[in-house]
Design brief:
The protein has helices at about 10, 15-35, 50-65, 70-75, 85-95, 100-105, 115-130, 135-140, 145-160, 165-175, 180-200, 200-210, 215-235, 235-240, 250-270, 280-295, 295-305, 310-325, 330-335, 340-355, 360-370, 370-380, 390-395, 400-420, 420-430, 435-460. It is an all-alpha fold. The radius of gyration is 30 Å and the shape is extended.
Amino acid sequence: MLILCARMNWRLVTIINAIIALVAVGAVIFDVARPRTDGSPKEPPQTTSQSNSANNDAEEWADKIRIESPDDLANARVDDLGAVPAAELTELMGRATPEQLAAMALKYNDAPTDARTFGGMGIFFQAWAQLDPSAALIGAFRINDVAMRKLAARTVVGSVSPSAAPQLIAFLTDHPDKDLTKESKNEFLGTLISSWSLLDPEAASRFVDSLGNTKDGGAYRGREEIAYNWATLDPSAALAWIATQKGATYLSDYVIKGWCRKDINAASAYVLQHLNEPAGVQLASSVVTAMFDQGVDDATDWMNHMPAGAPRTEAEMTLASLWATKDPSSAAKWLATLPANEQTNLVNTIASNWVETNWPEASRWIATLTGDNRDEALVVAVNREGVSRGDSLSLALSIGKEEIRNNVIENVIRNWAATDPNAAQTWVGASPLSNEQRDHLRSVISEMQQNTEQERVIITQ
């Protein structure tokens, strides 16, 4: 699995993204699940005038809800809060008493379970989490409906700053919710540990260590985030910590990813000296991923210093995949500069992307290939999306190696016979194949027809 190394920005905005996404998630889920009384599908926006109309409707709805003081807030319907701008609601809640906010949260026990309630819940608990994280989580756990309780708690956990993470971790540990045990140990705890590690990875690591060698998802994810975040600050300390983690060699890759963010030259030099370690293959891939984001020349130059072996092969595969997605033509030119034995491993990777995105260009490139490289590319082209059976078989017939050619042709015929056995029979009869090959393919078609008939009988019984 290829995981982009230079993803610190993603991690830094995880909590912010969670705040935005969670406010809307309840409304979206409810809207998807709700039966439509008119039986018609939901229509997508079609014109700018419709979009303007939607904006005007939202503004008119907000105008109907006037919440201008803490007393107004205390008397408001909680399912109306989604119409209040986040900044205004946070300011009003900041002037309300803790008792008023707790009473507001309890109103969700009597609120209708519809989209507006979920929207109001999201923005309310988001704002409360910023003002008083512990009180917000306590309020979330007092909601009777388990699904709503989960959404409220998730919003709180995803909305707090890294500095508030330790106190919420302590609360979850000391006061677990009996209905959300799994979520608390995995999702909630993992989010909070990750957040804490952004501020103080060393302290977060001590807490994770205190849990022991647990398999809970929260601790597992927490270790990964600690390793990454700590390495962006102090790679040596991060490496020293993961050395104490039993059976966690995979964490070294997270350290390298974070280290690449801090100092890619030092990280890449370290990896060159540790290619023989158990995680050496993945470390090499991570370095190449980070280098590719800065410039492909740096990645190719670095790989030139790698000895032959699995780490170099994996690094080349990583680069080929990234480059083929961005610029397959340039990736193909780089491929031609590699030793012949290394090219064959990468042709499939480049062809897999190119034949799907630009078949005319890809086909011209395949025509320039020879030997095993050409065969590898043709196998990919035969199976590209949208190709007709006839075109697939024409390409398959041009594969050089007999064993590969016969296997590919049989596979195409087998799939064709499942949907149109007569057309498959016609092609086989007119094909340039030997009598022995045609007889074999006819038996394949017959076998597929029998299987289809048996399935039809089973369905009708």
